[in-house]
Amino acid sequence: MSTTNQPVVAKKILFPFILITSLFALWGFANDITNPMVSAFKKILELNNTQASWVQAAFYGGYFTMALPAAFLVKKYSYKVGILVGLGLYAIGALLFFPAAAMENYFFFLVALYVLTFGLAFLETTANPYIMSMGSEETATQRLNLAQAFNPIGALSGLFVAQTFVLGALQSDNLDANGNSIYETLTGTAKAVVKTSDLLVIRNPYVALGLFVIFMLILIAFAKMPEKKEVKGGTSMWKSIKRIFKKERFVGGVIAQTFYVGAQIMCWTYVYQYAENLGINNQNAVNYAYAALGLFLVARFLFTYLLKFIDSGKLLMLLAVLAIVFCLGTIFIQGMGGLYCLVCVSFCMSLMFPTIYGIALNGLGEDAKPASAFLVMAIVGGAFMPIFQGMLLDIGGTGYADTTILGVPEVNFSFILPLVCFLVVATYGYRTYKVYAEN
């Protein structure tokens, strides 16, 4: 146990630390206000499930596009420059919702989300190592854990705004006494009025978010921020990249992270469709998203404590196996029991991202900076895997129970994809525990 007297955060940099820590909440907010938008856009614009899933493709595709450029920019200039560029792109993407709503163009909305996540890629690639650099190496992990604790606060805020100010105000989600959609029965003119109104409802929180991000950009731009200079004579980025891709532990980590993020986004996106198939509207389905996130938070603290006693690879493997069990319940238990199993998957996912991240970077030294960019790029799993799940949902039609596969509705069967993802994560955990530990 460490006996260092070094403070986790020195008083002289407390204000800069608070500013950068607030960014963790900002990207958590963006992530969780966007998940319910897949279902919302599907109804408003009358899309099929595959088309609606492009919301997540645009959102998480931005991470893949910009993570590596962010690492290059930070290496050439500074952490502060990386943060400011990220906030600028974040604000531009959010404000693009204004013309997108005016044009009532789905593609424009996707472009706005894509640009917004350019900013998130810069922030995630920059903020994590920046927080770790704000003090001694001995307290770096504690500092990062403290900052990361604010990410779920932003996530919960995003869910609250989605439920209260978006889903609760959408007229296209209204049902008649028999539980059928009123929107689908409207005439063309009446439907156009509802469409315009609902797109404005979606627009408003993103535009407000963009204005707040501009405020944060100005605040950080004028604040004096600590900065550690790059050591002269260090190896080039390209040489580091060549080295890290010779490391099986790292390459396996990138693959595992891609599949993990894909599983997370599928479970957190399609909980709304799963609940709707059980007669639960989107606004009320947010309560199950709250429960999933609550389990996620509690489990993170629990498993962080257990890491003191259990090998990280072994714990990762056990959690992935348990997630597979819950996915089987989600698929084959019809009714509320299946929904409860889907919520419980989040309990297993709680420690996966940071654990894979830590295992993959272990022993890389100065090569960890470019390596971390590739682990952020791995978030692209959240871009394309929901599309595959949308395709499964469209097998029998645009509904969620148009056909049965292995005796269950296609919305149930579609969770075979997260199950496969967790199988990949379990394999990486096993190899970490049994193979990499011996090397």
Automatic annotation (TrEMBL):
Transmembrane segments annotated in the record for this chain: 12-30, 54-74, 81-100, 106-123, 144-166, 206-223, 250-273, 285-303, 315-333, 339-361, 373-393, 413-430
Protein's UniProt keywords contain Transmembrane: yes
Keyword line: Cell membrane, Membrane, Transmembrane, Transmembrane helix
GO cellular component: plasma membrane
A GO molecular-function annotation: fucose:proton symporter activity
Pfam families noted in UniProt: MFS_1
Compartments, record wording: Cell inner membrane
Membrane topology: Multi-pass membrane protein
CDD domains: MFS_FucP_like
InterPro entries on file: Lfuc_symporter_FucP (IPR005275), MFS (IPR011701), MFS_trans_sf (IPR036259), MFS_TsgA-like (IPR050375)
Hydrolase as UniProt keyword: no
Name the UniProt record assigns to this protein: FHS family L-fucose permease-like MFS transporter
Organism, scientific name: Saonia flava
